[in-house]
Design goal:
This protein is α/β, with parallel strands linked by helices. It contains 27 helices and 28 strands. About 35% of the residues lie in helices and about 20% in strands. It has three domains: about 260 residues, Rossmann fold; about 250 residues, Alpha-Beta Complex (Isoleucyl-tRNA Synthetase, domain 2), CATH 3.90.740; about 55 residues, no CATH class. The strands form eight sheets. The protein has a six-stranded mixed β-sheet. It has a five-stranded antiparallel β-sheet with strand order 20-19-23-22-21.
Length: about 700
């Protein structure tokens, strides 16, 4: 029998909801429901922590609606539940907002927050980050209650005055969460998986931090950069040059080699009285023509010209010969910035990097200028550029790997703020992302008569996922977990059910595990997990501390100042331990951890793994988790599965329900900058929380949801 139509035009849904919330509070409905099921069969739900950094938007409410609906269902079927909400607390996302509040623009500003006192400055900044987390955790708690979400909430001032470890919700900044991660990293270290490595990493100059492979996917934008065609005059071949193309002119300062594909044919193109070498296929390629036709383009950027047309417009050309790429290997050339001191430093630049190069035998003791030669690289193609790739091992991930294979010394030009180091002449102090720097480089190349042509080139380029600044590639030392044990994680993934089946969640996760690199776990920042890695100041050996007790037992100084404080910077940095390999003293590295470590450990830190193993076994693994799926296969899902594999070689959950993204009513991504983001409080006041919940529950979780007042 169909339901009778109910008149709703005059109903004030938000007012009714407030009455229901008041009724639940007055009758202690949640506590009674929970007490009725206590001691019965358990149904374990694990909450993926919401970042306590800003008020909730309507996009947060979708997942939280699912979480509440599933918990209510299993409560009605008579199951005992934990009802524990989680807050994600640490990391760059919080730091950036605190910087905005304080009007800071760089790490230098943070370190001088208390003028002249770096320690006090870091301490103050970390405290402000904690205060912001507490502020918005309380805001989000109130909003979640308004959504109708039943959890064991911290409600009173007395609740919120407790340290994070003693609250009802879990906080990833808690001591238990941080020390449990220490235990995970200790296990990795005992298997020889933790290592310090130099790598050319995507780097945010504004935040002063490296961006991991997991985070890289979050920030690509379609932009146009000034690209250049540059002559590399060949030594011993008068009047002949390689024609090289790059979209990052600043990297030419650090060029060490040029790569060709040994299997490609290269044309000898005569232009006026000079010979240029260009890949045969690249010479006539209609570059990005299909993208231009589809209008996948940057507004105001003209259509790209084929290289042969560029030559025609410069006075014409003649093809006078052809050579295989393999025959070009070994040719030497003059680089565009050979006059720089950095190019004339033996074994690479700067000095500390050159020492590593020689110690680890990456390259011989030759200068960048002496190393200039053509090398073979099968990955060189003909669809972009000239088919000859300029190689700067200090400025790109692939370049760095190729440089190590070929024994080419790396030149790393930038400091952590993205500015050129001393040793780069007039470039020193200039920002690599400043358009004026590119203009200076083009003018300099023109003065040297090696600039052949320039153009605006549209392409997808990575930006910082948090502050939206264009990324650079910078050679830095970071800490990694070697992921050679990925097959163990895959075996755990096979035991998990991914829903809905149509999104092929298991296949997506396995694909990520098959193709990801090693896990970069370090961040050169302030607010976050203090990585428990202590390095000897004498022999450079490192050790990983696995717990607070181990740190206390091994401490030789600094413990008195640290005792009684959570394991955060700067206080934990004071603790020194004795090196286990020599008579030296070991200090903690300054880095904090990748924030996905924080969220990945929660099946262990929130259920009693370290303190009450029987209680942990009662609730582990979780029966169910649910989160927005597009990015989480390489973020939380990956972290939680990997860390559980290392900790217990068991899946941390049985069933995962993924859901799509919330868009505006026209299907566009919601962004504050676009003016189409909707605050949850606004939606709850205007249309009611139950209308929001109805929208979420009726939508196919595999599809994105268009949210707006007109559609609703």
């Amino acid at each position: 029998m169909p339901f009778a139509k109910v008149e709703t035009q005059s109903v004030d849904f938000p007012a009714l909801e407030r009455q229901i919330l008041e009724f639940w509070d007055r009758t202690n409905a949640f506590e009674k429901r929970r007490a009725k099921n206590r001691g019965k069969k358990c149904w374990s739900f694990l909450d993926g922590p919401i970042t306590a950094n800003n008020p909730m938007g309507v996009h947060h409410a979708w997942g939280r609606t699912y979480k509440d609906a599933y918990q209510r269902y299993f409560a009605m079927t008579g199951h005992d539940e934990r009802y524990q909400n989680g807050f994600d607390c640490q990391g760059l996302w919080v730091e950036v907002e605190v910087e905005k509040e304080l009007g800071l623009s760089s790490k230098r500003d943070i370190e001088n927050l208390v003028p002249g006192d770096r320690f006090a400055s870091i301490d103050k900044f970390v405290r402000l980050c904690k205060e912001r987390v507490d502020k918005f955790a309380r805001v989000q708690t109130d909003q979640s209650i308004r959504l109708g979400m039943w959890m064991d909430w911290d409600r009173s001032d007395a609740d919120w005055s407790k340290p994070p470890d003693d609250r009802k919700s879990y906080f990833t900044m808690s001591e238990e969460n941080n020390y449990t991660i220490w235990g995970f990293l200790k296990k990795c270290h005992e298997r020889g998986l933790v290592y310090r490595g130099f790598d050319s990493m995507p780097w945010c100059a504004r935040c002063g931090v490296g961006i991991s492979q997991m985070e890289m996917h979050e920030g690509y934008k379609f932009v146009a950069h000034k690209s250049v065609f540059v002559k590399f005059p060949l030594r011993g071949r008068t009047g002949e040059s390689l024609l090289v193309w790059t979209t990052t002119p600043w990297t030419l300062s650090s060029n060490v080699a040029a790569a060709v594909n040994p299997d490609l044919a290269y044309l000898k193109v005569k232009h006026r009285d000079e010979i240029y070498y260009v890949a045969k296929g690249a010479f006539t390629t209609r570059r990005k023509e299909e993208e231009f036709k589809r209008k996948e383009w940057v507004e105001g950027v003209p259509k790209l010209k084929p290289i042969d047309q560029v030559f025609k417009e410069k006075g014409g050309f003649e093809i006078v010969g052809e050579v295989k790429g393999a025959d070009m290997v070994g040719w030497q050339y003059d680089g565009p910035f050979d006059e720089l001191p950095a190019q004339q430093h033996s074994a690479g630049y700067p000095e500390d990097l050159a020492e590593v190069v020689l110690r680890q035998k990456w390259a011989p003791a030759v200068t960048g200028r002496e190393a200039h030669r053509v090398v073979a690289w099968a990955d060189v193609g003909e669809t972009e550029g000239t088919g000859i790739v300029h190689i700067a091992p200090g400025c790109g991930a692939e370049d760095f790997m190729l440089g190590k294979e070929q024994g080419i010394p790396p030149i790393a030009p930038l400091d952590e703020y993205g500015c050129f180091l001393p040793g780069f002449g007039e470039l020193t102090g200039k920002s690599a992302v400043d358009p004026q720097t590119a203009d200076w480089i083009l003018f300099n190349l023109q003065q040297k008569n090696v600039l052949f042509a320039s153009e605006k080139y549209p392409h997808s380029y990575p930006h910082c996922w948090r502050c939206k600044t264009e990324l650079l590639f910078r050679l830095v030392d970071e800490w990694f977990i070697d992921m050679k044990w990925r097959d163990e994680i895959k075996a755990v993934v096979e035991q998990v059910t991914f829903l809905p089946e149509s999104i092929n969640g298991k296949a997506r996760e396995l694909d990520w595990l098959s193709n990801m690199g090693d896990w970069m776990i370090s961040k050169k920042r302030f607010w976050g997990l203090a990585l428990p890695i202590w390095v000897c100041d004498k022999c450079s050996a490192f050790d990983v501390i696995g717990s607070r007790d181990e740190l206390k037992n091994r401490a030789i100084s600094g413990w008195d100042q640290f005792e009684g404080k959570p394991p955060h910077r700067p206080w934990v940095d004071l603790v020194k331990v004795k090196c286990t390999r020599c008579d030296g003293t070991s200090s903690r590295i300054g880095d904090v951890g990748n924030p996905w470590l924080d969220a990945g450990i929660v099946p262990y830190s929130t259920m009693g793994y370290r303190k009450n193993r029987a209680e942990w076994e009662k609730w582990f693994p979780a029966d169910f988790i649910t989160e927005c799926f597009p990015g989480q296969f390489r973020n939380w899902f990956y972290a939680i599965l990997a860390m559980s594999t290392m900790m217990a070689n068991r899946p941390p959950f049985k069933v995962l329900l993924g859901h799509g993204l919330v868009r505006d009513e026209h299907g566009e991504e919601m962004h504050k900058s676009k003016g189409n983001a909707i605050d949850f409080n606004e939606a709850a006041a205007k249309m009611g929380a139950d209308v929001c919940r109805w929208l979420y529950c009726r939508n196919n979780p595999a599809q994105n949801l268009n949210f707006g007042y007109t559609v609703a």
